[in-house]
Amino acid sequence: MAKLTEKIGYGMGDMASSMFWKIFSYYLPIFYSDVFNLSLTHTATLMFVTRVWDTVSDPMMGAISDRTETRWGKYRPYLLWFSLPFAISGVLLFSTPDCGEQGRLVYAYITYILMMTVYTGINVPYASMLGVMTDDSYEKTVFSSYRMFFAYGGSFIALYSWEPLCKLFIDYQPLFPVNSLSDAWQGAMIVIALMCFLLFIGCFLLTREHIKFERGDNLLNDFRSLIRNFPWWIITGAALCTNLFNTVRGATVAYYFKSLVSH
């Protein structure tokens, strides 16, 4: 029977991931267009390119983590190794360099692709951890329940606190070196990133990998097995539809409230 602390620790990992993902989904597009000053065309193209890269990097990271062997396990070490890069990448993503439009566009591509790569580097191993934490199906369901509870909690905290954090940095300029709206957004992201860093460290410290598996087969055999796996194609199709809906909803909701509800 898994300890309560381990269940809470496992939930903390998805809490961190969900906090970042909600900020990206709901606030990054409007940050690029209204604060970072990219055109909507450039913003949309950037979002598309990074999503294409994400479809490539996810299976690559899965293959790498499956073949990782350390004293901490296969997947758990990535929580430690990527927690700080995860936080730093998020801050860089919401930073606005003092350069021209082309310079900002290049910076946006570099930092967004970097962020999605680091996000994959920590989130794919985290999601795979459930298979090595217990072999009991009931306990897996319990772990998943804790994960979802903390994920929704993290999403609520991130979305509820973002605008108050930005306002805090603007209203208390004598305490914070804020000279513009972009500085306030960067300051808010620093707070969120610090919280996510601590949550991932907590997840690493409180969890353990109890199940040992043999090193994975070669990549070509893995790929062949995947292609012939019809249920996997069904799940992939459902996931693509769900992610498309969530992406469109998240990318437009901030513009909706700014343009219609607030007027």
UniProtKB/TrEMBL annotation:
<comment type="similarity">
    <text>Belongs to the sodium:galactoside symporter (TC 2.A.2) family.</text>
</comment>
<dbReference type="InterPro" id="IPR039672">
    <property type="entry name" value="MFS_2"/>
</dbReference>
<keyword id="KW-0812">Transmembrane</keyword>
<keyword id="KW-1133">Transmembrane helix</keyword>
<feature type="transmembrane region" description="Helical">
    <location>
        <begin position="77"/>
        <end position="94"/>
    </location>
</feature>
<keyword id="KW-0472">Membrane</keyword>
<dbReference type="InterPro" id="IPR036259">
    <property type="entry name" value="MFS_trans_sf"/>
</dbReference>
<dbReference type="Pfam" id="PF13347">
    <property type="entry name" value="MFS_2"/>
</dbReference>
<feature type="transmembrane region" description="Helical">
    <location>
        <begin position="148"/>
        <end position="165"/>
    </location>
</feature>
<feature type="transmembrane region" description="Helical">
    <location>
        <begin position="185"/>
        <end position="206"/>
    </location>
</feature>
<feature type="transmembrane region" description="Helical">
    <location>
        <begin position="106"/>
        <end position="127"/>
    </location>
</feature>
<protein>
    <recommendedName>
        <fullName>MFS transporter</fullName>
    </recommendedName>
</protein>
